[in-house]
Amino acid sequence: MNNWASYPSLKNRVVLITGGGSGIGAEHVIQFCRQGARVGFIDYNSKVSNALVERLASVCAHAPEFLQADLRDVGQVETVIAEFAERVGDVEVLLNNAAHDERHRLEDVTPEYFDERIAFNLRHLVFCAKAVAPGMKRRGGGSIINFGSFSWRIGSAGLPIYLTAKAGIEGLTKGLARDLGADGIRVNCVVPGWIMTGRQLELWMDEEVKKRIIDMQCLKDLVQPSDVSRMALWLASDDSRMCTSQFFVVDGGWS
Q1: Are 84 and 16 in contact (CB under 8 A)?
Q2: Closest CA to 186 of 235, 145, 232, 143
Q3: Within-domain flag for 95
Q4: Of 89, 153, 218, 235, which has the fewest beta carbons less than 10 angstroms from its beta carbon?
């Protein structure tokens, strides 16, 4: 049995998570709720999101709040963030987690498709950070955690616009860390490898793929969503108070 760390500084901390209804995002919601944080999460899928809230309501000090919005719609995003902050308090931790690694070919990319994929995988990170930054400044600081991907670092095939967005997240992290650091706001990036989410298991995983993953990683075990979330817990807590403008790779040593 593993005895994972508890972070007293996260108790009652106001945390906002994008894409929190499923996958790695849902694990973030679970892990931060277990720490006693006051969690709100943005997602579009009401079925899985409401089920997650119901699951956690009776086992956590604070039930998470589901904030329904399409992250491609900046107006919706700004509205739900403002309403959440008015109810619960200024956001102290932002997890810019939401993404979608839809496969595509260069010859099929249109200007409209490019704009939509960038909106889904990069643009909303900017506007979520913009929305929470004033409240973090009022509180004297905060932690923004962006989520990239090792896919662009290893040159994955079949999703060039997704890789473009994920590479851009690392540049955004550096820029925001520099611009917001004087206000005590830390900005870091977690770079997951091939994570065993339900979607990955359903769409891509078989014994051949599993063998390839194990062969490529230094650590011979599959990386779970909780492995990524525990890195996020540390970056959100006071324990990492002097860490900013950095990239924390959780890929078992693949890249």
Answers
A1: yes
A2: 143
A3: yes
A4: 218
Burial-class residue 5 by CB neighbours within 10 Å (0-12, 13-18, 19+). Answer: exposed
Q: What's the distance, CA 239 to chain centroid? A: 19
1: pLDDT strictly greater than 70: no
The 3-state DSSP class for residue 187 equals strand
- Domain around 15: 8-195+224-250
Sheet architecture: strand order including 93-96 = 65-68, 38-43, 14-18, 93-96, 142-147, 185-192, 247-250
Give percent of the chain above pLDDT 70. 100
> Does residue 206 belong to any structural domain of this protein?
no
The set of catalytic residues is 162
3-state secondary structure of 192: strand
Q: Indicate the number of domains in the chain.
A: 1
Q: What is the pLDDT of residues 44-60, one digit of tens each?
A: 999 999 999 999 999 99
Tell whether the model's pLDDT for residue 73 goes beyond 90.
yes
In a domain, 116, yes or no: yes
Cα–Cα distance measured from residue 225 to residue 114, given in angstroms and rounded to the nearest whole number:
28
Task: Let me know if residue 244 belongs to a domain.
Answer: yes
